[in-house]
Design brief:
- The chain is mostly helical and 103 residues long.
- The protein is 59% helix and 0% strand.
- Helix 2 crosses helix 3.
- The longest helix is centred in the last third of the chain and has 16 residues, at 87-102.
- The protein is elongated.
């Protein structure tokens, strides 16, 4: 499933209109995202948003933030590469992740 379809399906399960959901998601400056921006996200016309918006979408749509980050194809800030991990440790983490998804 694409990021947009996950957002759209979850919004519909919660019986929210795009306008209602958009009004609940606030940018860093405190203003709401526009319904058009949300529509573009749902139709995969825009790249998934930043962590600030992803966290709010997860909360409003009752999705785990981990799943939403996964379908967005990004990492939460606490997992973003800092360049301090060895290549072997990173490879082991990805192998463990793949094994967990295959179960």
């Amino acid at each position: 499933m694409s990021f947009g379809s996950v957002i759209s399906d979850a919004r519909k399960r919660r019986s929210l209109s795009q306008k209602e959901l958009a009004s609940r998601i606030k940018k860093e400056d405190g203003t709401a995202i526009s319904p058009q921006y949300l529509n573009d996200l749902e139709r995969d016309r825009r790249n998934p948003p930043n962590q600030h918006l992803l966290d709010q979408l997860a909360g409003q749509l009752q999705l785990t933030r981990e799943y939403l980050f996964y379908v967005a194809g990004t990492y939460p800030d606490d997992l973003k590469p800092a360049g301090t991990e060895s290549p072997e440790r990173v490879a082991a983490a990805f192998r463990a992740f793949r094994r967990a998804l295959q179960k």
